[in-house]
Design goal:
Layout (H helix, E strand, L loop, with lengths): L3 H6 L7 E4 L4 E5 L5 E9 L2 E10 L4 H16 L4 H11 L8 H12 L5 H14 L1 H5 L8 H13 L3 H20 L30 H12 L5 H13 L3 H5 L6 E2 L14 E4 L1 H8 L9 E4 L2 H14 L20 H8 L10 H16 L4 H14 L9 H7 L4 H15 L6 H6 L7
Antiparallel strand pairs: 1-2, 2-3, 3-4, 5-6, 6-7
Length: 437
Amino acid sequence: MLTDKAVRAAAPKDKAYKLSDSGGLYLQVSPQNHKSWRFKYRFEGKEQLLTIGAYPEVSLAEAREKRNDARKLLREGRDPRHAAKRAKLIGEKSKFQTFEQAAREWHQIQKPRWKPVHADDVITSLERDIFPDLGAMPVDEIDKPLLLAALRKIEERGAIETARRVKQRVAAVYRFINAHGAGLVNPASELNDALAPLPPSKRYPALLDVAAIRVMIGDIDRAGASPVNRLASRFLALTAQRPGMVRTMEWGEITGVDWTNRDSDVSEAMWLVPADKIKQELHLRSDEAFDHPVPLSRQAVDTLRAVRLFTGKAKYVFPSARSGQEPISMNTLGYLYNREGYQGRHVPHGWRSSFSTIMNELAEREPGRDERLLIDRMIIDLMLAHKPAGMSASELRYNRASYMTRRRELAQRWADMIMEGAIAESEIIDSPRRKRR
């Protein structure tokens, strides 16, 4: 057997030579005095050779340890060369030593897929709620009780939804770790039952009676506000889309309208909401967002024609009065409704509930339409940019523009119903602002 002294003293010769140790391990010495450890063995009846490493980077003791590891693999029926290639590719030790190291690398890889505001939210939540307690811990030492304790601290400050979002992010980090071959139990799995229940979904105040809606539309049409804001409210009521999507609506998103001819056909008038705006409005964490087509009723087109007199040269259909380069504020319509006496009764988002409730009730009351009722319910969900129950994301991708004829019919029926008795757009444009008493 070799000794450290013998290995150090091995001098180069004219030809390469070997110094044998034991168990198939030997030191190869080249004429250029390069020394390397090698292990000779037989696998599946054939002689094989594994290069373990160079001396002195790999000492005699380390070479023997690696030889023993290789012999263990042989006893398990595995070729040590394959294990060596794997180690060279992915490292012999775990790629991630601490949770923070893994989480930050996961975040950097995912970041290009996310909106900047979401990417900042993800890393900030981990820095605030996880890294102080668990960041420096080895990834294989964090178990369910430990993670649960960290999540409970988030819940104790009343941030129930945040705790669940952080849990989902930790779960994603461990999936990322395991994709690199760690094979760890994901500590974030099966924790929901131990977390505080989510608060009830927020219900937006909304008028659900057509007569009351007509009265409100009249109140807002005659309110002491700018024509642009009043027309924005009318368009929101007619389309029942999310306020943020209407707020940031651009003229370039509208098709099928000849703005130069008021009497032109508008049967194909459409507002196509880009997928990016839907993702931003909903703060989506995934890529399951698609362009959302909104068929426009005659009244919706008339509303756009009216506001175009004020904002036709601007980017946004409903720009801010302070800056024509920015959309109206998120609070503009809410403040308008409150001033007109609708606080706690109806909010801008409430038009969606109004549309869904009233149109579904109408469908239910029509006789002999059991099959059509199910279809109409799905179509109403599609019109609201919801994913209908039982429809997968892939089905939604192909069906989002389907049933357009029926969608137009429902949009026009809704417009005819709520706009009965409403003043003309010209009166909104020409009427002076009412003085507040």
